[in-house]
Structure formats: structure tokens, C-alpha cells
Amino acid sequence: MKVQIGKMILYGALSALFYIVVPLVLFEILEAYNIMTFDTTFKTVIIIFGIIGVVISMLRHLFPKDTPANRWVAFGATIYSGIYLFYMFGGFTAGVSLGTYRIDLPMIQVLLGLQLIAWLLLGSSGIRALQYLVEAIELRKKKEYSVTVRKQFKLSTLFKIFGTIMSLGIAGYFGSLVYSGMNLGFGNYSYDYNHDPGALPLDLSDDTINLTFSFDVSNQGIYAIYDVSIDLALYTVTTGNASALPENEKIGESSNIDLGTFHSFTTTPDNNITVNIDPTYIVGFVTTNATLEFQISFSTLYAGIFIELNISIQSFWPGIP
């Protein structure tokens, strides 16, 4: 049996690019632009996975394609690549709904749970691996296996067709995610307040104040945004009188607000969240101007992906005349 040293070296180099070089370069670019951060353990595991993947890829091309040994190694290599991609997309994150990836931008943080993608990629690899398994058995036994679906197909060909269809479906899913993500928008932020002077108009201590935060949601993508839940916390950043109204202090919050579903190709204006000001800070809040920060946390399910989105918005509060 002829050993293919040249192919081993070529495909080993290509596998090193796929398994190690491209992911690590991508990680560095994302970190350099402060978009994502990856911990050292994650990178180390990727390198270890990559080295093993390179070795398996070289072994795959050690023997000619029309030999059982080649097909057996191809079967193992395909399973391994599926496990690698499963890890890359957070499939091994046990016991939580969210995955590995966190995007950090100024005033915005996004945590993405990509387990659906992980399972799709693993399933696609499994189907392609079955093709190589059947081919290995056929070559070993020198016998072809067929199935009849209206007409007769080689069993390995059928798995190849299914694998190709699934790969195209995953590619289409990725494309639709990119398109839909580019057509999502949260904007037109504003707030108003309601002030109740209580039974004693000249005594601020019995006053109540709530702020109503308003925003629009534009979903022009092809997927609905399901099960939208929002928490909102209101903080002071700077104040005109720190003794009356402390700086960097949480002065109000509203949690577990259920906004339901935002359907595709729709714009939903004037979504309102009411925040009650903590009575402890009522007097200072009424009498003091301040820079406020609305810290908003969205959690939702979008196209099978769990998303937690945190947004910080600052606004000036002039006090109440």
C-alpha cells in the first residue's frame, strides 16, 4: 500500500490553518477591537484540539482514497471535526442556557448562547461520517450497499446527499442570521416622569416619583424576537450635590418586565418601562440635577439563539422646579 507523504504534509498544513491559525488570528482581531474577549483556557483547549486535528488529518491522507484505511480514518476525522466545532460554539457549556461568546462594545454587552449552531454542526458532521463508515465497510467487504427511495441509491451516496443538504441548510441559516441581525434596531430612547407631592405639598419626604423609560423596537429581520424580558436599573453618575443625592448609586429599578414577542418585519414604538425612585433618594432627586444612567438588560430567544443584551444609556436630569 502506497503511503502519500506529499498529501499528508499538504493537508496537515491546511488543517493547521483551519484548526489553529484562523481561530487564533480571529480571536486576536476581535480582542484588539474590544469586540470579544476569550480566556486563556479556551485558547489553550483550541490549540490542543487543533494539534490533534492536524495529526488526524495527516493520518487520513496517509493512505489512498480507495482503501478501507483511508475511509476509516476519514470517518474518525469527520467525527472529530464535529466535536471540535461543537466545542467552538459552546456545546459543552453544561447546565446553562447561554454559551461561550460575549461581545463587549462601548455601552453595549451581548452574551450569545450558540448551542443550536453547535448541535447543527455536530449533526452535519455525524451524517457525513456515516458516508465514510459505509464506504469503509464496502471497500473492506468489496460489496456495495443500496437503499430504495422510489429508486435505488448507494447507501453512502444517500448519506452524502443528506450531508450536503444539511450543510447548505446550515450555510443558509448563518446567512439569514447575518441579514436579520443587521436589520434589528432599538432606538428613540426617551423618558418622562410623574411626580406625586403626596398629602403634604411642602414636605418632600412623602413625595413619590417614577420615571417612564420609552423606546422603539424595529425588527425587520426574518425571525421573531421571542420571550423578551427586561430588567432596568437607574443609577446616578454625577450629581449637582453629592451630599443630597449620592453619585454612582442605584436609585431605582424595575425587574422581570415581560414584553412578549416582537414579530418579524415590524416596528413596535413606545415600549414603556416604569421605574419607581427609591424613597430614600426622593428629596435629593427632586432638588438636585444629575447625570443618570439607565442600565437595561434584555434576555430573549432569537432564531434559536439565547441572547442577553445589556445596554447603558445616560441622560441629564434637571431636578424638579
* Rg, nearest Å: 28 Å
- Strand runs, count: 11
- As a percent range, the share of helical residues equals 40-55%
Unreliable stretches: none
How would a textbook summarize the main sheet?
9 strands, antiparallel
Order of the strands making up the biggest sheet: 1-2-11-10-7-8-9-6-5
User: Strand percentage, roughly?
Assistant: 25-35%
The rough form would be described as elongated
Strand/helix succession: HHHEEHEEHEEEEEHEE
Structural class: alpha+beta
Written description of the protein model:
The chain has 321 residues and is of the alpha+beta class. The chain contains six helices and eleven strands. It has helices at 5-32, 40-60, 68-88, 115-141, 155-182, 282-287; strands at residues 101-105, 108-113, 146-149, 151-154, 184-196, 208-219, 225-239, 250-262, 266-277, 290-302, 305-317. The chain has a nine-stranded antiparallel β-sheet. Strands 3-4 form a two-stranded antiparallel ribbon. The radius of gyration is 28 Å and the shape is elongated. The model has no long low-confidence stretch (mean pLDDT 83).
